[in-house]
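Supplementary Note 3. Input sequence used for the single-chain structure prediction.
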Amino acid sequence: MDLTAHHRELADQGFTIIENLIDLNVISELLNEVARLEKQLDRRPDNNRFEGNRTTRTYNLLAHGPLWQEIPVQPEVLELVEGVLGEQCLVSSLASISLAPGETAQVLHADDQIQPLEKPHIATACNSMWALTDFTEENGATRVVPGSHKWQNPDYFGDQSDIESIPAEMAKGSVLVWHGSTWHGGGENITNNDIRVGVAMNYCAGFIRQQENQHLGIPPDIVATFTPELRQLCGFGMYRGLTGNIEKQSPAHLLFGDAEETQLWDYDPIKPN
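The predicted structure, written as discrete structure tokens, is reproduced below.
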């Protein structure tokens, strides 16, 4: 797939939608898994102003079965994310979000707003939403604020009444990707029985701490079933040959026998690595 236009939209508008990207059979499997986990784990709304009163979230999905391992490495999404964050980005969090009728609109926010950096700044986060059901304005499609990733030091806690957002409407199987500085929020679900279900696949730059602690949150025996690529995305490698090392070696090599990585100070400046 030629993603040139999507790269441009991400840079210019701060978000893009890849329509009908994911096979609907996979979407159906994921939807069933979300329902199973919500029941098994007795997940309920967290009842706070950010996560909502009618929204059910299930976190740390990589710990809950091989189907979830396909999501972080989806090629088109990962290409777009790396276009924002650069190579060696990391899985920050992976969670399902079921937004039920009666839910009110989430406060608009940016996913990198807790980071004490002046804005705009080099991208530290880039996130995505997989639509497991149709996302419509009526059932609470994610609302985005075009161009907000370029705003200079915005006030996240001020009056939001004048901020214009638009619904990221998309058919199930589509994926919304947005820059971590882009203002967005879940919409209001005014339907009678239409639960809007999505999977939030969030990434961060390799030099930023992940939202979910992948190392402690995922049992080692499950990490052992990951591909080397997914282990790298979860932070078991070294960022630029240095950050995250153990005695100058990557945890992925020491724990799981993945290929050795060259430590920064051992790079040969003449020969390619």
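The longest strand covers residues 90-99. The chain has one domain: 4-213.
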